[in-house]
Amino acid sequence: MKRPNWSFDNSKIPDANRLGGVGKALCSSMKILEWRKEIPIGSVLSLGKLLKGAYEAALKYSKERVQFGSLLVNFKAIFL
Question: Which of 24, 30, 33, 70 is a Cys-bridge partner for 20, taking CB atoms 3.0 to 4.6 Å apart?
Fold first, then answer.
């Protein structure tokens, strides 16, 4: 299945919803990258296992759940 291209050109985002505030995106991104260096590798590996388990559970559910007469896995919004 081909994935759609997403484009947010000319999108209006309220100032209150911007991460780090107006004009602070690069600064906020750099702070996140600095914070990432301090995370122990064991925590990262545990998170990876948790995310993999969540993905597998969601995939299993989408193959069993019927909505509007069709399995969820068949909807275009779900990409495998």
Answer: 24
In a domain, 31, yes or no: yes
Q: Domain range for residue 24?
A: 18-74
In Å, the largest CA–CA distance within the chain is 48
Low-confidence ranges of the chain (pLDDT < 50): none
Where does residue 57 rank: exposed (0-12), middle (13-18), buried (19+ CB within 10 A)?
exposed
Which residue, chain included where needed, has tokens 């299993």? 60
Q: How many domains in the chain?
A: 1
Beta-bridged to residue 66, according to DSSP, are 71
Strand-pairing partners, residue 71, are 66
Amino acid in the structure at residue 59: L
